[in-house]
Amino acid sequence: MKLLVRIVIALLLLSGAVYLYALTIPANQTHTRTISLKQPPETIFALLADVEGMPKWNRHLEKVEVLPPIEGKPATRQTFKGNMQMTIVTSESAPPTRLVRSMGDIGGPFVGSWSYQINPSAAGSEIALTEASEMKNPIVRMMVKLFGPTKYIDEHLEDMAKHFGETAAIR
């Protein structure tokens, strides 16, 4: 019985320490990752602008439904693997160089946006994807820290490169 009590106390102390550490992780975070592709900016922008076609090449996305505009901006309900759904609003679109998509669901575990900056290069395009997020829940922040804050950005860029038959060298 003493051993069980010690184990429970140790687990409680460890949980408390993890939670206290999670409180030190900033709620607002910004991460940018970049790749070079051999495609011109117009081709990259067209792929990203075709939201309904994204499930064909994005490994995490299962379905996209077009919603009525939100505050005059195009909106979709995106269903990800695991049946997680998000309302995504295209908050800025400047073909073929800039596209910003923001989460329209306020009150979830995180809110934020993905901003694509597509610049022409000698070999095709440089694509910078910036995620700006706010995670109010410290446990969510800890999970993001454990799994890598750029995991989904990296996988999205890898999937984009794969769609064009290229390999992503993410920086």
Can you describe this structure?
By secondary structure, this protein is an alpha+beta fold. The chain has a single domain, classed as START domain (Alpha-D-Glucose-1,6-Bisphosphate, Chain A, domain 4, 2-Layer Sandwich), CATH 3.30.530. The protein has 4 helices and 7 strands, in the order H-E-H-E-E-E-E-E-E-H-H. The chain has a 7-stranded antiparallel β-sheet, covered by helices on one side. A hairpin with a 2-residue loop joins strand 6 (111-121) and strand 7 (124-134). Helix 1 (2-24) crosses helix 3 (138-147). The longest helix is centred in the N-terminal third of the chain and has 23 residues, at 2-24. The radius of gyration is 19 Å and the shape is elongated. The relative contact order is 0.21. The model has no long low-confidence stretch (mean pLDDT 94).
Which outline best applies? Answer: elongated
Which architecture name does CATH use? 2-Layer Sandwich
How many domains comprise the coordinates? Answer: 1
CATH homologous superfamily (4th level) name: START domain
Structural class, from secondary structure content?
alpha+beta
Mean pLDDT rating: 94
Spatial strand order of the main sheet: 1-7-6-5-4-3-2
Q: What would CATH call the class? A: Alpha Beta
Element order: H for helix, E for strand: HEHEEEEEEHH
Poorly predicted ranges (pLDDT <50, ≥5 residues)?
A: none
| Major sheet size, sense and barrel closure | 7 strands, antiparallel
CATH topology title:
Alpha-D-Glucose-1,6-Bisphosphate, Chain A, domain 4
Strand content: 35-45%
Helix content: 25-40%
Counted beta strands: 7
Query: What's the total helix number?
Result: 4
Query: Which value, in Å, is the CA radius of gyration?
Result: 19 Å
